[in-house]
Amino acid sequence: MKKILIMLAALLLAIPGLAFAGFSALGNVYIYNGSTYSYMDGAMSVRYNSSTGGAYLMSQEWSDGTVTFYARDASSNVFFCYIPTTSPLFQRAQLAHYSMSASSYVYVYRTSSSNECTEFYYTNASYYLN
C-alpha cells in the first residue's frame, strides 16, 4: 500500500495543472534511496546538462535480453535496477524500452536488498514533451 501511495504522489507531482492550455511537464528526475527501498521516476524529456546537475534517465537492453534502468537526478543521486528475462515484468519492460520517447514517463522501484526491479510503471503522454 505504501508503494502505491508513493507512486500516486510521484504522479501527482509530475503532472500538476493539466487543465491549463499549453501545459507541459518539466523533464525532471526524482530519486529516493532509502534503507529498505529505492525508486526513480521522471520524464524522458529531461535533458542531460552538466550545468544543472547532469540529470538523466536511461533504459538499455543487453544481449541476454535483460532490461536495465539508470537515472541520475540534479543532486547527483543515482539509481539502477534490472529486469531479467525470467521476471514477470520483463515483457512489459522490454516493450516500454523499445517505445520510449521524449513523451515517456517511467517509475521504477526496487528493494534495497537487491538491484532487481520489483515494480515498473510506464506511460506516454504529449504533456511530457517540452
How are the secondary structure elements laid out?
Blueprint: H1 2-14, E1 29-33, E2 37-43, E3 56-61, E4 67-72, E5 78-83, H2 90-99, E6 104-111, E7 119-124
Antiparallel strand pairs: 1-2, 2-6, 3-4, 4-5, 6-7
Strand order in the largest sheet: 1-2-6-7
Order of helices and strands: HEEEEEHEE
> Quick check: average pLDDT?
79
The total count of helices amounts to 2
Shape assignment:
globular
The whole-angstrom Rg is: 14 Å
Unreliable spans: 7-24
β-strand number: 7
Span of the ends, CA to CA: 32 Å
Tell me about the largest β-sheet.
4 strands, antiparallel
The percentage of residues in β strands lies in 25-35%
Proportion of helical residues: 10-25%
Structural class: alpha+beta
Q: Could you explain the architecture of this structure?
A:
With 130 residues, the chain is of the alpha+beta class. Helix content is 18%, strand content 34%. The protein contains 2 helices and 7 strands. The strands form 2 sheets. A 4-stranded antiparallel β-sheet has the order 1-2-6-7, with helices on both faces. The protein has a 3-stranded antiparallel β-sheet with strand order 3-4-5, covered by helices on one side. The longest helix has 13 residues. The chain is globular and about 35 Å long. The termini are far apart. The relative contact order is 0.22. About 14% of the residues have low confidence.
